[in-house]
Amino acid sequence: MTTLSPTLQRLQGETVKAYKIRLCENKDTYQINWNQIADLINQETGDNFGESKYRKWYVNYKEGYEDAMIKGTSNLSSAIEDQTYTLHKERIKNQTIGVHINRIAREDARKEMLIEEFTRAVKENSLQPPEFHSLPYSTGDKGAVLGFGDVHFGKIFESVNNKYDEEEVRLRLADLFVQTVNKINQEQLTHLHIVNGADNVDGIGLRISQLMSLQFGLMDQVIRYQRLMVEWLNRLSTHVKITYHHVPSSNHTEIRPLGTKAGQFPKEDVERLIATYIHDMLANNQRIEVPQYKDDYARFEICGYRFYAKHGHQIKNVKTALKDLSMLHREFIDYLILSHFHHAEEITVGEGETNDCEVIILPSVMGSDKFSDKLLTGAKAAGKMLIFEEGKGKVTSHTLKLN
Ligand SMILES: [Mn+2]
After folding, report:
1. How many angstroms does the Cα of residue 312 sit away from the middle of ligand 1?
2. What pLDDT does 381 receive?
3. What spacing in Å lies between the alpha carbon of 199 and ligand 1's midpoint?
4. Do both 288 and 187 map to the same domain?
5. Cβ neighbours of residue 251 under 8 Å, at least 6 residues apart?
6. Range of 51-55, 56-60, 203-207, 330-334 with top mean pLDDT
7. Is the Cβ–Cβ distance between 159 and 403 less than 8 Å?
8. Judgement on whether residues 53 and 166 belong to the same structural domain of the protein
9. How many angstroms separate the alpha carbon of residue 311 from the centre of ligand 1?
10. What superkingdom heads the lineage (predicted)?
């Protein structure tokens, strides 16, 4: 007997059945026929069956195997269908939940986005410090004017809102002193221009009826008042350097000798006496300068601006007065300061290179009286502190109330 190739021999641990199936399945590969298969198996089992026994057995076996395979596959696909359906259902469930979750998430996201946007805006717009420029350092000159007028010293009366006599004048000037010192400190002033707008004394009255409201005669008015002013200015100079501008002409202070009418002797005015007395008495005070004005107005400059000061009794039209005086004197006036009207006003009447040209009407120290009560034109007693800056003109106006 020839030696079998190893592949045709029963393998170690291989059952007879597995050996039999392997030979039948690989019949063509092994290039053997059914007789040879029968011999090989008979040899292993000790049987003596013909080739048809194994051939038929294998046909049945193979048929059964294939049937089982087909059935198995169909079971598998129905199982897959079931699984797919379940999965689909789960997906729908998840989608249903998802819609709800998405809505909540969307709302949360919107809220978060709002807060983030708000925080970003706050950071960008509010909390971001700007790039600081160096602080402007003003090299411009600063100037100040204290203006007061119409003291009408010597007048005594009691009206609806006012009571006036020498004692009241002294109290008001003391009050003006304190308020002025406060402003000097507040505005950090080293130099103060003072404009006295005249009608400092009440005179002897413009009508006979006014004689009734005089506390003293004209000479006593002048003597008492000029002493008071000298003392007042002397004390104020302990706080600041002063240039004192005294308007030398007004209606109550001009004297009308020999029955002359208003303005006929314009130089016969006691304001000139008062101004000259103040000038002479303060000559030794190095902190006070008193310019002497020969005409009926004061004229000076502050921060490069030209000022005129008049009483105002000759002025017919306040609004054109500044331009009219500029024409008359052939020079540009920036500020015209008037008194006389007993109520304050600051009127812009033109435009200069860097400033507004203004007519500034001072309030009165006297305030309202029976005459203004009758005309309903009264106003409170006050002085004014005006602040000017180089290149800007008037920047501040303080009212220093006195009653
Ligand atoms: Mn007057």
Report:
1. 7
2. 98
3. 5
4. yes
5. 199, 206, 262, 311, 313, 340
6. 330-334
7. no
8. no
9. 7
10. Bacteria
